[in-house]
Design a protein that fits this description.
Layout: H1 2-48, H2 57-87, E1 96-98, H3 100-117, E2 121-125, E3 133-135, H4 137-153, E4 160-170, E5 173-182, H5 216-226, E6 231-235, E7 241-248
Parallel strand pairs: 2-4
Antiparallel strand pairs: 1-3, 4-5, 5-7, 6-7
Helix pairs in contact: 1-2, 2-5, 3-4, 4-5
Length: about 250
Amino acid sequence: MAAQLEEARERIAELEALGSAKTQFLANISHDLRTPLTAVITHAEILRDGILGPLSARQLESIGGIINGGRQLLDQVGEILTYARGAANRLTVTPTRFHIGDVVSQLNALNESLASKKGIDLVTVVPPDLAPVTADREKVAHIVGNLLGNAIDFTARGGHVWVHAIRAEGPSGAECVVEVGDTGIGIDPEHHDLVFREFAQVDSTASREHHGTGLGLTIARKLVELHGGRIWLESELGAGSRFFFTIPYPAD
């Protein structure tokens, strides 16, 4: 029995070492990829802005594709780096007091053009008298931005996407509840847990229409939990999705 316990401990130690090595590798490779990707985007922007001379319309269109593709790659690398930091318990929060409506308005402005191009109606509703939250503003913006980006991505032309925020009473007291919803393709209830798992894709085929690292919702859940909040999903296939997360208000 003692020999079996020792063998089990050794196996656990090996698995923990492998997990640590994987996390460190992801962090290192993500960090190393950011520099050349940023350089590619910067040089493409120099060409686009005509600093090195005028370009034709077709050349400008091609440069625009390079910039957009580079930014998408940079976002994905950033997700992997954030995930690696979370897996290594190196993610921290720096709380400040701010109005959630300001964050929602900022993200609405950033995504308005994309929604307009897809013919999607983007609506945000945050009561002006909603009490400010005490949280890490950058990380809350990351959560809302991820959910909003997904909602637009998975909603067809002519659909609707919305962001609402209210104050409500939760299991442990008052909390700010943020809802990001859409009239998109929806998610089968049997896949609701899957979407929050690391590297998971509901459609994992190579020909899938929507691509990504599969880490966005995993990171969002981690960031919500770091704030002591909750995140959940209400959705049915073909009936759109509604994602909710909470930020607790400090006890009076």
